[in-house]
Amino acid sequence: MVGGLDVTAASLASQQLGDPDIDELLAFMSTCSGFFELVKGYPPEREDAAQLIQDRPEGLSAARKLLIGLRRDGGLVGVLEVLQGYPDPKTWYLGLLLLDPKLRGGGLGAAVYAAMRRWAAAHGARRIQLVVQEQNPSALAFWRAMGFREIGRAEQTLRTGSNRVLRMAHDFG
Predict the structure, then answer these.
(1) Which of 23, 32, 62, 125 could form a disulfide with 92 if both were Cys (CB 3.0 to 4.6 A apart)?
(2) Boundaries of domain holding 60
(3) Cα 7 vs. chain centroid, distance in angstroms?
(4) Is 56 exposed, middle or buried (0-12, 13-18, 19+ CB in 10 A)?
(5) Separation between Cα atoms, residue 25 and residue 4, nearest integer Å
(6) Mean per-residue pLDDT for 95-117?
(7) Beta carbons of 83 and 93 less than 8 angstroms apart
(8) Keywords on this record (predicted)?
(9) Is residue 1 in some structural domain?
């Protein structure tokens, strides 16, 4: 269990991912290449896996950025990126919740998010924020079903162009 995130109800184990896990992370990201092609315009590359592990907002300590591997039967079936106390002490930022496409649609994402929300609340969070790309209507519908509401829009600049994103928040507690 990473930092108090309990995903055992979803029949998952959690593990902090780091530099030694880049190749395994890239292999998992490749099983989700449809997401990366939709969002970034190209399949995942090794540099993308390294950036997912290492990148964090300026001023956020490494200890407050967690990249969590979600495992079932030892295999990586999901990834959760969490920024604790960002952008303010009462908010946690959910950078990514990505599940193996074969496991989507059966309630696993909702179970993982519920566990993450309980964990955040137990550590003083009162809000979770995230962004969703406008061209990803299934993700937008999922997050709305989880209780998120739009709080703004922005343009995300990528090496292949740009995306319009919806900034969303879920207030609780």
Answers:
(1) 125
(2) 8-171
(3) 14
(4) middle
(5) 22
(6) 95
(7) yes
(8) Acyltransferase, Transferase
(9) no
